[in-house]
Fold each of these.
Amino acid sequence: MNSGKRPDFDPHDPLGVDDELSTEQLAVRDSVRALCRDQVLPHVADWFERGELPRARELARELGRLGVLGMHLDGYGCAGMSAVDYGVVCEELEACDSGLRSLVSVQGSLAMFAIHRWGSEEQKRHWLPRMAAGEAIGCFGLTEPDHGSDPSSMRTSARRDGSDWVLNGRKMWITNGTIADVAVVWARTEEGVRGFVVPTDTPGFTAPEIAHKLSLRASVTSELVLDDVRLPADAVLPEAHGLRGPLSCLNEARYGIVWGANGAGRSCLEAALEYSTTREQFGKPLAGHQLTQSKLADMAVRVHNGRLLALHLGRRKDAGTLLPQQVSFGKLDNVRGALDVARTARTLLGANGISLEYPVMRHMTNLESVLTYEGTSEMHTLTIGAAMTGVDAFRG
């Protein structure tokens, strides 16, 4: 029988999940948390209000110095850390702001992963060390103005012209596009869908930033326009044929969202807990009212169950047993859960819940984008349904 002293209940870690993380994982988390606290949180509300991320390149270099860009990849300047390490980082980044986590996810899980998994040795050596250091920024062009959930219907095309490729088309809702040095662009060819590594200074390539967003405002979101973009033969990703290439990249990014969305929910819970214990109504703190405690308890259960789910999927990923349908399970549930927590936290803060002096409304609007990017909730629901029944209902 264990006769040691029972640990105190921690309202910020009620299930003791931190005990399941290694010393190294906690150290990585704390380093990223410190960067967010010192360099982003003092400014992010103002950036969100202005609809810009003015220090994107500087932040990328800082994140590169911490080793978190492409951190789950091996070699070529990448840290070669575990999937759980990467997840813990995504949780901290999105607890700060979804836009910051998106910058890192697109850099590492989409653009860098595409080159690392499907690229040539020359492409890897040329781009990955600079991208891992944050000296070069990448973006990932798959979604089109008329084709989001159905990438098989993409219109962007690549045709051979002698030994060159010539690309034409448009991509939409592309994080990092306007500031990127390289774009991984997927296009239809005579031999099926292929991926191309496109330096953004190539003639015919432009990336106007998308304005008038009400979500992910502290993030660079762009359109990619390809107008007779001529590339050499070695610009194609040699190992990627068909949709397997881009879908494998999306699965990497979705895994990060499982952790990241939970970070946004955690931030909302912490804001609501702090507010309810210091704000008085009817002669006592809000936290002293039964309905407030009910909301706080429900939010805590949602957030920390989500954390356990993310950790479980991360361990499966590290073991090589994680299935795409399980990633869909995690993305679907944790994003919906984080949105529920954000909306409940908003009610606890009353009118202050809509103020940028608090993070809740910013997280809530950001999560409305997270709900639909990297696969809408409907698509993930159907993915799980098809896996359970053996019946594909996507076109039904």
Amino acid sequence: MTDVVRPAATASPADLLDLESEFSVSELEVRDRVREFADRRIRPRIARWFADAVFPREIVPELAELGVLGMHLDGYGCAGASAVEYGLACQEIEAADSGIRTFVSVQGSLAMSAIHKHGSEAQKEQWLPRLARGEAIGCFGLTEPGAGSDPAGMTTRARRDGGEWVLDGAKRWIGLASIADVAVIWAKVSDDDAAASQGARSRAGASSSGVSTTGCERVRGFLVPTSSAGFTATPIEPKLSMRASIQCDVTLDGVRLPDDAILPENPGLAGPFACLDEARYGIVWGAMGAARDAFEAALGYAGEREQFGRPIAANQLVQEKLANMALDISKGQLIALRLGRLKDAGKLRAHMISAGKLDNARTALDVCRTARTILGGNGITLDHSPLRHALNLETVRTYEGTDEVHTLVLGRHLTGLQAFR
């Protein structure tokens, strides 16, 4: 069960519009370096990891050495890469497998971004260098059993008890939680408790976030060492998708944390949403990597598989499928590149990310399903990548916002009217 390893990096046959020429030398160097790693370390083993439902933890230090853990962040040992460079890295890793790209996203776009965007200087110094080096693993706990698309409906709460925080609640579908060293947990906190914590930290010389005392609740983030008493992470098994990745149920039963465990910046749902947008941006690129790999597998197979005395690639219906897949990939990569350039220019807006995540995830899934049909019965084995990619993309299409959620984000942008409730 091994996928075909491609030769040295070149433009994909799916590149119908010469997008290769749109990238700078440094961007292509990042792409080729990550592609070489994926071809060498992931592709020859991914079928077995997927079949056995194993996340290959041994490659974490190698991914760190490759520079892809938090690579879009500045300082604290992070690579400080451009948005386009990060996108290309996501594309090449997901061309090998969505589950491995999901690790990179959870570690960098979610856990590390939360600390980088919303943490104190002490929290950044404590965790970001270790996470960038792969010496520690992070996870991001937002989704709950009863609060997926509606995170405002979360029931996890943090309350003050003396000089400590106490967390109670449950999270679901939390990537890496069972192997993580630190969890970013989002919980509802009363403004009174938040203000009391802020006052204590201000008296101790910490910065103030300006929280008012209104008696209301708002969502706040906490850094929770996973060794804390009362923190339990249980992998969700068996799964039909993302089998070379880890997703968990998490319970928080009276988890006690020091006062400075709270992330001091950006109270409210804007905090986790900013991190989710980072992850969604990576998906826009990554999904096209999976689609491209499935297309190339189907194209190669069609040229070699003979029926009725000739390669099936000579059949009109097969050529129609190949042409449509290549067009879809080219359009999806144009979307990804446009968003990357906007992000690097500081002009990327949330509805644009929703447009890219919505369209590229569903397009990639359609491409992979079509590619499987060209492989016929052989396509259901792990000797070939398209169905594995399609199974993974069922998750990619769902997480970080379902089709319905992103459609309504775009509807709100177009009409100015909220349709979520």
Amino acid sequence: MCFGSPQESSGGDISIGAKDTRKVSCQHLVFLWGFSCRMTAGTLKRLLQGSHTVFSEEFDVRLVDKSCAIVVFWKPGLSDTFLEVINSQEISGSLRELVSEGLRAACYETYKNICRLGIWEVDLAQSLEKALEEPDCLEKSDSESNPLEVCWFSDSIINLDDL
């Protein structure tokens, strides 16, 4: 399911689906979990749209499994802003309600650390939680100097084997 390092093509891209594509930096991806296991990507996107101003810009949501989704922010910097907001004490509005109901978020680096540390649970959400508890998870990787890009496809589900 995971490789020692993200699977790269000759151009440094990661393939995650088929059909219509857009390239996006992995730095613009956020993993979300802690939502109802019966929630669809469309429902989650609608909930997020009104929850904070960061979601007033263009973004997309894809399910990874029943416990986890990936949000892509098309505008640079919004993923960092969202991660700062969701982890702050100043969170408000419907986003605060989602967080109080268990919504959690992590950056792509956390996913890479799951791969590097071999932390695989039944659901990706459990793996993300476990990775965030690891002291090694706080280490910065070299992605800041060499950011990867992914091809974002119009499919509604992402295949982790391709990350």
